[in-house]
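User: quick one, sequence for these C-alpha coordinates?
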Protein backbone atom coordinates (compact mmCIF):
# COMPACT_ATOMS: atom_id res chain seq x y z
CA UNK A 1 0.00 0.00 0.00
CA UNK A 2 1.17 3.49 -0.81
CA UNK A 3 2.02 5.46 2.31
CA UNK A 4 3.20 8.73 0.80
CA UNK A 5 2.83 10.96 -2.23
CA UNK A 6 5.91 12.65 -3.68
CA UNK A 7 5.22 16.15 -5.01
CA UNK A 8 7.48 17.71 -7.66
CA UNK A 9 7.48 21.44 -8.31
CA UNK A 10 6.88 23.18 -11.59
CA UNK A 11 8.05 26.68 -12.44
CA UNK A 12 8.92 27.44 -8.81
CA UNK A 13 12.21 25.77 -9.61
CA UNK A 14 13.09 28.60 -11.96
CA UNK A 15 12.66 31.27 -9.26
CA UNK A 16 16.10 31.67 -7.73
CA UNK A 17 15.67 34.22 -4.96
CA UNK A 18 12.03 33.72 -4.10
CA UNK A 19 12.20 29.99 -4.20
CA UNK A 20 12.00 29.18 -0.51
CA UNK A 21 9.17 31.63 0.02
CA UNK A 22 7.25 30.05 -2.87
CA UNK A 23 7.90 26.60 -1.48
CA UNK A 24 6.39 27.64 1.83
CA UNK A 25 3.37 29.06 0.04
CA UNK A 26 2.92 25.85 -1.92
CA UNK A 27 3.27 23.80 1.25
CA UNK A 28 0.55 25.80 2.94
CA UNK A 29 -1.72 25.56 -0.14
CA UNK A 30 -1.20 21.78 -0.09
CA UNK A 31 -2.10 21.64 3.60
CA UNK A 32 -5.26 23.66 2.97
CA UNK A 33 -6.30 21.44 0.06
CA UNK A 34 -5.91 18.36 2.28
CA UNK A 35 -7.58 19.88 5.35
CA UNK A 36 -10.20 17.15 5.57
CA UNK A 37 -7.52 14.60 6.58
CA UNK A 38 -5.92 15.97 9.76
CA UNK A 39 -3.63 12.94 10.06
CA UNK A 40 -1.73 13.84 6.87
CA UNK A 41 1.78 15.28 7.36
CA UNK A 42 3.41 17.46 4.71
CA UNK A 43 7.14 18.17 4.72
CA UNK A 44 9.94 19.28 2.42
CA UNK A 45 12.55 16.79 1.33
CA UNK A 46 15.30 18.36 -0.77
CA UNK A 47 13.50 20.38 -3.47
CA UNK A 48 10.39 18.23 -3.32
CA UNK A 49 7.55 17.75 -0.88
CA UNK A 50 6.48 14.52 0.74
CA UNK A 51 2.85 14.05 1.73
CA UNK A 52 2.57 11.24 4.30
CA UNK A 53 -0.88 9.71 4.26
CA UNK A 54 -1.12 7.97 7.67
CA UNK A 55 -4.12 6.04 6.44
CA UNK A 56 -5.77 8.70 4.24
CA UNK A 57 -6.98 7.25 0.89
CA UNK A 58 -4.33 7.68 -1.79
CA UNK A 59 -6.69 8.17 -4.76
CA UNK A 60 -8.77 10.85 -3.05
CA UNK A 61 -5.66 12.68 -1.85
CA UNK A 62 -4.17 12.54 -5.36
CA UNK A 63 -7.42 14.01 -6.69
CA UNK A 64 -7.04 17.04 -4.39
CA UNK A 65 -3.34 17.47 -5.15
CA UNK A 66 -4.02 17.42 -8.89
CA UNK A 67 -5.85 20.71 -8.33
CA UNK A 68 -3.06 22.52 -6.51
CA UNK A 69 -1.24 24.98 -8.77
CA UNK A 70 2.55 24.96 -8.64
CA UNK A 71 2.81 21.17 -8.79
CA UNK A 72 4.40 19.65 -11.87
CA UNK A 73 3.87 15.99 -11.09
CA UNK A 74 2.95 13.52 -8.35
CA UNK A 75 3.89 9.97 -7.51
CA UNK A 76 2.40 7.65 -4.92
CA UNK A 77 5.41 6.12 -3.15
CA UNK A 78 6.13 3.26 -0.78
CA UNK A 79 8.81 3.57 1.85
CA UNK A 80 11.40 0.92 2.74
CA UNK A 81 14.07 0.77 5.45
CA UNK A 82 17.69 1.07 4.27
CA UNK A 83 18.17 -2.61 3.62
CA UNK A 84 18.61 -4.31 0.25
CA UNK A 85 16.15 -7.16 0.90
CA UNK A 86 13.50 -4.79 2.23
CA UNK A 87 13.94 -2.43 -0.73
CA UNK A 88 13.63 -5.37 -3.15
CA UNK A 89 10.42 -6.47 -1.45
CA UNK A 90 8.87 -3.01 -1.69
CA UNK A 91 10.01 -2.67 -5.33
CA UNK A 92 8.14 -5.91 -6.07
CA UNK A 93 4.96 -4.46 -4.54
CA UNK A 94 5.32 -1.28 -6.58
CA UNK A 95 5.83 -3.25 -9.79
CA UNK A 96 2.81 -5.37 -8.95
CA UNK A 97 0.69 -2.21 -8.62
CA UNK A 98 2.04 -0.81 -11.93
CA UNK A 99 2.12 -3.90 -14.11
CA UNK A 100 -1.14 -2.96 -15.85
CA UNK A 101 0.95 -0.27 -17.60
CA UNK A 102 2.71 -2.79 -19.84
CA UNK A 103 4.99 -5.78 -20.14
CA UNK A 104 8.46 -4.20 -19.98
CA UNK A 105 10.20 -2.55 -17.05
CA UNK A 106 13.44 -1.24 -15.67
CA UNK A 107 14.74 -0.19 -12.27
CA UNK A 108 16.28 3.24 -11.81
CA UNK A 109 18.10 4.23 -8.63
CA UNK A 110 18.93 7.64 -7.24
CA UNK A 111 21.30 7.42 -4.33
CA UNK A 112 21.34 10.62 -2.32
CA UNK A 113 22.58 8.71 0.72
CA UNK A 114 26.25 8.02 0.07
CA UNK A 115 26.53 5.79 3.18
CA UNK A 116 24.36 3.13 1.55
CA UNK A 117 26.61 0.08 0.88
CA UNK A 118 25.65 -0.50 -2.80
CA UNK A 119 26.10 2.21 -5.39
CA UNK A 120 23.18 3.04 -7.68
CA UNK A 121 24.26 0.69 -10.51
CA UNK A 122 24.70 -2.22 -8.11
CA UNK A 123 21.39 -1.68 -6.39
CA UNK A 124 19.54 -1.30 -9.73
CA UNK A 125 21.11 -4.50 -11.02
CA UNK A 126 20.33 -6.41 -7.85
CA UNK A 127 16.69 -5.32 -7.60
CA UNK A 128 16.14 -5.59 -11.38
CA UNK A 129 17.45 -9.16 -11.38
CA UNK A 130 15.25 -10.15 -8.45
CA UNK A 131 12.16 -8.63 -10.08
CA UNK A 132 12.87 -10.32 -13.43
CA UNK A 133 13.05 -13.67 -11.64
CA UNK A 134 9.81 -13.07 -9.81
CA UNK A 135 7.78 -11.51 -12.66
CA UNK A 136 8.58 -14.04 -15.37
CA UNK A 137 5.96 -12.64 -17.77
CA UNK A 138 7.69 -9.18 -17.78
CA UNK A 139 10.81 -8.27 -19.76
CA UNK A 140 13.54 -5.86 -18.81
CA UNK A 141 13.91 -3.00 -21.27
CA UNK A 142 16.40 -0.34 -20.23
CA UNK A 143 15.66 1.98 -23.17
CA UNK A 144 11.89 2.39 -23.45
CA UNK A 145 10.23 0.46 -20.63
CA UNK A 146 6.48 0.66 -20.00
CA UNK A 147 7.17 0.82 -16.27
CA UNK A 148 10.14 2.40 -14.52
CA UNK A 149 10.51 1.41 -10.88
CA UNK A 150 12.29 4.36 -9.23
CA UNK A 151 14.23 3.84 -6.03
CA UNK A 152 15.24 7.00 -4.24
CA UNK A 153 17.75 6.15 -1.50
CA UNK A 154 17.77 8.88 1.14
CA UNK A 155 19.19 9.29 4.62
CA UNK A 156 15.92 8.42 6.34
CA UNK A 157 14.96 5.48 4.12
CA UNK A 158 14.28 4.50 0.52
CA UNK A 159 11.26 5.70 -1.45
CA UNK A 160 9.99 3.52 -4.26
CA UNK A 161 7.50 4.51 -6.96
CA UNK A 162 6.50 3.88 -10.57
CA UNK A 163 3.55 6.05 -11.50
CA UNK A 164 4.02 9.70 -12.40
CA UNK A 165 0.78 11.70 -12.53
CA UNK A 166 0.76 15.11 -14.20
CA UNK A 167 0.07 18.06 -11.88
CA UNK A 168 -1.83 21.29 -12.57
CA UNK A 169 1.33 23.30 -13.32
CA UNK A 170 1.57 27.07 -12.90
CA UNK A 171 2.43 28.93 -9.71
CA UNK A 172 1.00 28.59 -6.20
CA UNK A 173 -2.12 30.71 -5.70
CA UNK A 174 -1.13 33.77 -3.68
CA UNK A 175 2.21 34.31 -5.34
CA UNK A 176 1.14 36.99 -7.80
CA UNK A 177 -1.22 39.23 -5.84
CA UNK A 178 -4.93 39.81 -5.81
CA UNK A 179 -7.27 40.69 -8.68
CA UNK A 180 -10.95 40.85 -9.46
CA UNK A 181 -12.56 38.66 -12.10
CA UNK A 182 -15.83 39.17 -13.96
CA UNK A 183 -17.61 35.86 -13.84
CA UNK A 184 -20.70 35.41 -16.02
CA UNK A 185 -22.55 32.12 -16.26
CA UNK A 186 -20.94 31.45 -19.64
CA UNK A 187 -18.25 29.06 -20.82
CA UNK A 188 -15.41 31.53 -21.16
CA UNK A 189 -15.07 33.50 -17.95
CA UNK A 190 -14.65 30.45 -15.64
CA UNK A 191 -11.79 29.30 -17.87
CA UNK A 192 -10.26 32.79 -17.78
CA UNK A 193 -10.48 32.79 -13.98
CA UNK A 194 -8.86 29.36 -13.83
CA UNK A 195 -5.98 30.55 -16.00
CA UNK A 196 -5.48 33.59 -13.81
CA UNK A 197 -5.41 31.41 -10.68
CA UNK A 198 -2.91 29.15 -12.36
CA UNK A 199 -0.55 32.11 -12.70
CA UNK A 200 -0.67 32.47 -8.92
CA UNK A 201 -3.36 35.14 -8.59
CA UNK A 202 -5.87 35.30 -5.74
CA UNK A 203 -9.18 36.08 -7.41
CA UNK A 204 -12.23 37.90 -6.05
CA UNK A 205 -15.19 37.06 -8.26
CA UNK A 206 -17.75 39.60 -9.43
CA UNK A 207 -21.04 38.57 -10.96
CA UNK A 208 -23.60 41.01 -12.32
CA UNK A 209 -27.25 40.04 -12.26
CA UNK A 210 -30.52 41.81 -12.94
CA UNK A 211 -32.71 40.16 -10.37
CA UNK A 212 -35.74 39.80 -10.50
CA UNK A 213 -35.39 39.66 -14.31
CA UNK A 214 -32.64 37.08 -13.95
CA UNK A 215 -33.68 34.07 -11.91
CA UNK A 216 -32.49 32.57 -8.64
CA UNK A 217 -31.36 29.44 -10.39
CA UNK A 218 -29.21 31.57 -12.71
CA UNK A 219 -27.52 32.82 -9.56
CA UNK A 220 -27.14 29.32 -8.18
CA UNK A 221 -25.48 28.34 -11.42
CA UNK A 222 -22.86 31.04 -10.88
CA UNK A 223 -22.37 29.90 -7.27
CA UNK A 224 -21.80 26.38 -8.57
CA UNK A 225 -19.19 27.66 -11.02
CA UNK A 226 -17.53 29.57 -8.18
CA UNK A 227 -17.50 26.40 -6.09
CA UNK A 228 -15.80 24.44 -8.84
CA UNK A 229 -13.20 27.21 -9.16
CA UNK A 230 -12.71 27.22 -5.37
CA UNK A 231 -11.68 23.58 -5.75
CA UNK A 232 -8.59 24.90 -7.53
CA UNK A 233 -7.81 27.90 -5.36
CA UNK A 234 -9.26 27.46 -1.91
CA UNK A 235 -12.16 29.54 -0.64
CA UNK A 236 -12.96 32.77 -2.44
CA UNK A 237 -15.32 35.75 -2.41
CA UNK A 238 -18.19 36.00 -4.84
CA UNK A 239 -19.54 39.55 -5.13
CA UNK A 240 -23.09 39.66 -6.46
CA UNK A 241 -23.87 43.04 -7.98
CA UNK A 242 -27.24 44.19 -9.29
CA UNK A 243 -27.36 45.92 -12.67
CA UNK A 244 -31.14 46.26 -12.69
CA UNK A 245 -31.15 49.97 -11.98
CA UNK A 246 -28.29 50.61 -14.43
CA UNK A 247 -30.07 48.74 -17.18
CA UNK A 248 -33.27 50.70 -16.62
CA UNK A 249 -31.32 53.94 -16.89
CA UNK A 250 -29.56 52.88 -20.11
CA UNK A 251 -32.81 51.69 -21.62
CA UNK A 252 -34.46 55.00 -20.83
CA UNK A 253 -31.81 57.42 -22.06
CA UNK A 254 -29.47 55.79 -24.58
CA UNK A 255 -29.59 54.62 -28.23
CA UNK A 256 -30.50 50.96 -28.49
CA UNK A 257 -27.51 49.99 -30.66
CA UNK A 258 -25.12 51.13 -27.89
CA UNK A 259 -26.82 49.35 -24.99
CA UNK A 260 -24.43 46.44 -24.76
CA UNK A 261 -21.32 48.56 -24.93
CA UNK A 262 -22.70 50.97 -22.33
CA UNK A 263 -23.61 48.12 -20.06
CA UNK A 264 -20.09 46.75 -20.36
CA UNK A 265 -18.67 50.16 -19.55
CA UNK A 266 -20.86 50.26 -16.46
CA UNK A 267 -19.60 46.81 -15.46
CA UNK A 268 -16.07 48.18 -15.71
CA UNK A 269 -16.94 51.39 -13.83
CA UNK A 270 -18.47 49.41 -10.99
CA UNK A 271 -15.67 46.82 -10.94
CA UNK A 272 -13.08 49.59 -10.78
CA UNK A 273 -14.81 51.15 -7.78
CA UNK A 274 -15.12 47.74 -6.12
CA UNK A 275 -11.45 47.11 -6.89
CA UNK A 276 -10.47 50.22 -4.90
CA UNK A 277 -12.08 48.62 -1.85
CA UNK A 278 -10.30 45.30 -2.35
CA UNK A 279 -6.98 46.74 -3.50
CA UNK A 280 -6.88 45.10 -6.93
CA UNK A 281 -4.35 46.27 -9.49
CA UNK A 282 -6.16 44.44 -12.27
CA UNK A 283 -9.24 42.49 -13.16
CA UNK A 284 -9.81 39.49 -15.37
CA UNK A 285 -12.45 38.99 -18.04
CA UNK A 286 -13.28 36.09 -20.35
CA UNK A 287 -13.34 38.19 -23.52
CA UNK A 288 -12.13 36.48 -26.64
CA UNK A 289 -11.58 38.50 -29.76
CA UNK A 290 -14.36 38.36 -32.31
CA UNK A 291 -16.76 36.06 -30.46
CA UNK A 292 -19.61 38.56 -30.16
CA UNK A 293 -20.32 42.14 -31.18
CA UNK A 294 -18.90 43.66 -28.00
CA UNK A 295 -15.66 41.72 -28.43
CA UNK A 296 -14.41 43.41 -31.56
CA UNK A 297 -11.16 45.27 -31.12
CA UNK A 298 -12.95 48.61 -31.09
CA UNK A 299 -15.52 47.20 -28.63
CA UNK A 300 -12.77 46.25 -26.19
CA UNK A 301 -10.98 49.53 -26.71
CA UNK A 302 -14.03 51.66 -25.96
CA UNK A 303 -14.70 49.74 -22.76
CA UNK A 304 -11.13 49.76 -21.47
CA UNK A 305 -10.88 53.53 -21.36
CA UNK A 306 -13.19 53.77 -18.33
CA UNK A 307 -10.75 52.03 -15.98
CA UNK A 308 -7.23 52.67 -14.79
CA UNK A 309 -6.88 49.06 -13.67
CA UNK A 310 -5.01 46.60 -15.88
CA UNK A 311 -7.39 44.32 -17.78
CA UNK A 312 -6.26 40.72 -17.95
CA UNK A 313 -7.88 38.76 -20.78
CA UNK A 314 -6.33 35.30 -20.71
CA UNK A 315 -8.54 34.08 -23.57
CA UNK A 316 -8.26 37.01 -25.93
CA UNK A 317 -6.50 34.99 -28.62
CA UNK A 318 -7.87 31.52 -27.88
CA UNK A 319 -10.04 29.41 -30.17
CA UNK A 320 -13.51 28.62 -28.89
CA UNK A 321 -12.94 24.88 -29.24
CA UNK A 322 -9.81 25.05 -27.10
CA UNK A 323 -11.71 27.02 -24.47
CA UNK A 324 -14.46 24.41 -24.46
CA UNK A 325 -11.94 21.62 -24.06
CA UNK A 326 -10.35 23.36 -21.13
CA UNK A 327 -13.75 24.06 -19.55
CA UNK A 328 -14.47 20.33 -19.77
CA UNK A 329 -11.11 19.44 -18.24
CA UNK A 330 -11.46 21.79 -15.27
CA UNK A 331 -15.06 20.80 -14.58
CA UNK A 332 -16.98 24.00 -15.36
CA UNK A 333 -18.40 23.12 -18.78
CA UNK A 334 -21.44 21.11 -17.71
CA UNK A 335 -22.58 23.92 -15.43
CA UNK A 336 -21.83 26.65 -17.97
CA UNK A 337 -24.07 25.15 -20.64
CA UNK A 338 -27.16 25.12 -18.41
CA UNK A 339 -29.55 27.37 -20.32
CA UNK A 340 -30.37 29.98 -17.69
CA UNK A 341 -30.88 33.64 -18.52
CA UNK A 342 -28.16 36.20 -17.95
CA UNK A 343 -28.33 39.93 -17.58
CA UNK A 344 -26.64 40.65 -20.91
CA UNK A 345 -28.73 38.41 -23.13
CA UNK A 346 -31.96 39.74 -21.61
CA UNK A 347 -30.83 43.23 -22.42
CA UNK A 348 -29.19 42.75 -25.80
CA UNK A 349 -30.41 44.99 -28.64
CA UNK A 350 -31.43 43.39 -31.92
CA UNK A 351 -28.59 45.08 -33.79
CA UNK A 352 -25.69 45.97 -31.50
CA UNK A 353 -23.05 48.25 -32.99
CA UNK A 354 -19.98 46.20 -33.72
CA UNK A 355 -17.68 49.16 -34.39
CA UNK A 356 -18.73 51.68 -31.74
CA UNK A 357 -16.98 55.05 -31.88
CA UNK A 358 -15.52 56.45 -28.69
CA UNK A 359 -17.10 59.83 -29.11
CA UNK A 360 -20.63 58.61 -29.66
CA UNK A 361 -20.34 56.20 -26.74
CA UNK A 362 -19.04 58.95 -24.43
CA UNK A 363 -21.86 61.19 -25.55
CA UNK A 364 -24.44 58.49 -24.83
CA UNK A 365 -22.90 57.77 -21.44
CA UNK A 366 -23.07 61.45 -20.53
CA UNK A 367 -26.84 61.00 -20.34
CA UNK A 368 -26.37 58.67 -17.37
CA UNK A 369 -25.69 59.53 -13.74
CA UNK A 370 -22.65 57.27 -13.75
CA UNK A 371 -21.44 58.14 -10.25
CA UNK A 372 -24.90 57.69 -8.78
CA UNK A 373 -25.36 54.32 -10.47
CA UNK A 374 -21.94 53.12 -9.27
CA UNK A 375 -22.68 54.19 -5.70
CA UNK A 376 -26.09 52.49 -5.73
CA UNK A 377 -24.63 49.26 -7.12
CA UNK A 378 -21.83 49.19 -4.55
CA UNK A 379 -24.19 49.82 -1.71
CA UNK A 380 -26.18 46.72 -2.58
CA UNK A 381 -23.28 44.31 -3.22
CA UNK A 382 -23.83 40.93 -1.64
CA UNK A 383 -20.63 39.05 -0.78
CA UNK A 384 -20.74 35.27 -0.53
CA UNK A 385 -17.83 33.26 0.76
CA UNK A 386 -17.47 30.15 -1.41
CA UNK A 387 -15.61 27.23 0.13
CA UNK A 388 -14.09 24.36 -1.77
CA UNK A 389 -16.00 21.10 -1.60
CA UNK A 390 -15.09 18.94 1.37
P1 LIG B 1 -18.67 34.21 -21.14
O1 LIG B 1 -18.76 32.84 -21.73
O2 LIG B 1 -17.57 34.35 -20.13
O3 LIG B 1 -19.98 34.71 -20.67
P2 LIG B 1 -19.04 35.48 -23.64
O4 LIG B 1 -18.28 34.97 -24.79
O5 LIG B 1 -20.47 35.09 -23.47
O6 LIG B 1 -18.22 35.16 -22.33
P3 LIG B 1 -19.80 38.22 -23.10
O7 LIG B 1 -21.10 37.79 -22.61
O8 LIG B 1 -19.70 39.36 -24.06
O9 LIG B 1 -18.92 37.07 -23.75
O10 LIG B 1 -18.92 38.62 -21.86
C1 LIG B 1 -17.57 38.96 -21.97
C2 LIG B 1 -16.97 38.97 -20.59
O11 LIG B 1 -17.60 39.95 -19.78
C3 LIG B 1 -17.20 37.67 -19.84
O12 LIG B 1 -16.23 36.70 -20.15
C4 LIG B 1 -17.11 38.12 -18.41
O13 LIG B 1 -15.79 38.26 -17.98
C5 LIG B 1 -17.78 39.49 -18.46
N1 LIG B 1 -19.21 39.35 -18.17
C6 LIG B 1 -20.24 39.23 -19.04
N2 LIG B 1 -21.42 39.12 -18.39
C7 LIG B 1 -21.14 39.16 -17.08
C8 LIG B 1 -21.92 39.09 -15.88
N3 LIG B 1 -23.24 38.94 -15.90
N4 LIG B 1 -21.29 39.16 -14.70
C9 LIG B 1 -19.94 39.32 -14.64
N5 LIG B 1 -19.16 39.38 -15.73
C10 LIG B 1 -19.74 39.31 -16.93
MG1 LIG C 1 -21.65 35.49 -21.75
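Assistant:
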Amino acid sequence: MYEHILVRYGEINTKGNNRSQLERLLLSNIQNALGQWPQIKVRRISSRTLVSLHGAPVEAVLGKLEKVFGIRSLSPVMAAPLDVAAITEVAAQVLEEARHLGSTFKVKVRRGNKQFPLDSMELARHVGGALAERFTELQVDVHEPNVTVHIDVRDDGAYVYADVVEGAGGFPVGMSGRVGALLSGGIDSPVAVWQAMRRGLVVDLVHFHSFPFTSERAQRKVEDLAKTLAGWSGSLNLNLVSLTQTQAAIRKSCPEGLRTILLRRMMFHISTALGKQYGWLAFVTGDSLGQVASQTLSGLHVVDEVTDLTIIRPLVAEDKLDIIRRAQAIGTYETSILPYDDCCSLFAPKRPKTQPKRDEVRLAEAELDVEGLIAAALQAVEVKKIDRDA
